[in-house]
Amino acid sequence: MKKCNWTRARSDEQKEQRIKEIISATERLYRKVGYKNITFVDIAKEAGFTRSNLYKYFKSKEEIFLEFLNNDFKNWKNDLINNYKESDYSVDEFIDVWINVLEKNKRLTELTSILYLHLEKEASYDSLLNFKQTFIIDLKQVVDHLTEKIKDFAVEKVTDFIYIQNVIGIGLYQMTDLSDNQFKILERPEFSHWKGEFKQKFIQSTKYILEGLLND
Prior knowledge:
Layout: H1 12-33, H2 40-47, H3 51-54, H4 61-83, H5 91-104, H6 106-112, H7 115-122, H8 125-146, H9 155-176, H10 180-186, H11 198-214
Helix pairs in contact: 1-2, 1-4, 4-5, 4-6, 4-7, 4-8, 5-11, 9-11
C-alpha cells in the first residue's frame, strides 16, 4: 500500500497524478485477486487514500475499472498501429499480427468480458459517457489505420470486423476461462466435445469473419 501526502490536488496535473495512482493501485490488486474480489475500499487502501478522498475522483469500483480498461484499450491500439507496418497483408498474415497483439494485451480481453455485464451497468451516466467518447476516438484511429492493410478493407468492413470479433472474443473467453469444477466436468467423456482452447478457436473464428466480410 502506497502512502500519499494528502495535500489537496489543485491543478489538472495533480489531479491526473492522483488518478494514475488509483489506476496503478487497481492494477496491482487485479493481478493479485482479480476483479470479483476487489472492493472500492480495497482500492482506497492500496492507493493510500481514504474512502472519502477516493470518492472525489471515482464514485464506484466500476468507474475505476472503466478508466483501467480505457488505458488497456489505448495500449492495444498503439500496439496494433505499431505492428501493422506493411501496406498489403494476406488474410493469414493479417490474422497473425492481430492474434499476436491480442495475446500481448490479454488483460484487455479479460476486462472486456465483464464490460457490458458489470462495468457499464454500474457506472454513472457521466462516467460511462466519457468512457464511450474516449473509446470512439481511439477506435477511429484503429479503423483508419487498418483500412490500408488489406485490399478492399473499407471503413464499414473494418468496423464490422472489430465489432463481430469482439463479440465472439468475449463469448470464447467466458467459455474457456474455466473454474476447476468446470474443467473437471469437461474432462468427462460425455462433455468433452465442449472443450476448447481460446487461441485456436479465436483464430478460426477471426478467419471466418474476415474472409466473409472481404468476400461480401
